[in-house]
Amino acid sequence: MSDHFRSYKSRIKRDYYNTYPTDEERLSHRPEEVSLSDWKILLNYWGDEKVQEIAKKNSEARQKITETHTTGSTSFAQVAHMLRLEKLAKLEKEKQEKLGKMPVNDDGEGEGNGEEDPIKVSDADIYLATRKRDEKREYKLPEQVLKMVNDKIVDVKKTLETEDTSEDSEKSANSEKSANSEKSAEVSYEDDNDVNTD
């Protein structure tokens, strides 16, 4: 409700206050739904120098914001949860053996067997999900700002792909090391058992 009222006030100021240069013109063109006494109060308020300074400062700050999220009232925590569930569904569709050692309960949580949870949602994943732009929709941002945001999204995607590739190679190197250390431990154990105890 407060968001609607804020939008309403903004529209009233834009259409009936900023459009006319003097208070006399503003009084003669007041919105029908606003009483004369309320309109005079608003004119005095918006005409105050301190209020105009604050409005100018806020307007300049708003112009500097280039990356707005596109999730509406959905919280980032909800976005992270949805991404996690999507990743879980993707993992389940892939070969079952990828999750073989990692049983998953109904909440998508890995059950504690000492293994690391394979379903992680990074800040970069959340960033990408909350900055998606609908190509069919027209945005109020200038074209150059939209291009800058889209370029940043592409950079983040490339970084994620690079990190995923390096993590995969690191995991395979670690599993090779672990397999080699298990083999050497077996050999060492066998050597200890071969010792002649005459």
How would you describe what is shown here?
- The protein has 2 domains: 2-64, no CATH class; 76-192, no CATH class.
- The protein is 64% helix and 0% strand.
- The mean pLDDT is 77.
- 1% of the residues are buried.
- It contains 7 helices and no strands.
- The radius of gyration is 30 Å and the shape is elongated.
- It has 198 residues and is mostly helical.
- Helix 6 (123-130) packs antiparallel against helix 7 (143-193).
- The longest helix is centred in the last third of the chain and has 51 residues, at 143-193.
- Residues 106-116, 188-198 have a biased composition (Acidic residues).
Category by helix and strand content = mainly alpha
Would you count the extended β strands for me?
A: 0
Q: Give the low-confidence spans.
A: none
Number of domains: 2
Rg on CA atoms, Å: 30 Å
Mean pLDDT: 77
Percent strand: under 5%
Distance between the termini: 91 Å
Task: Give helix % range.
Answer: 55-70%
| H-E string | HHHHHHH
Number of helices: 7
Principal-axis shape: elongated
Sheet with the most strands? Answer: none
Q: Please, what is the oligomeric state? A: single chain
Keywords, separated by commas or semicolons:
single chain, 198 residues, mainly alpha, 2 domains, 7 helices, 0% strand, Probable_transposase_24
Which helices and strands appear, and what pairs or packs with what?
Elements: H1 2-17, H2 23-28, H3 36-47, H4 49-64, H5 76-93, H6 123-130, H7 143-193
Helix pairs in contact: 5-6, 6-7
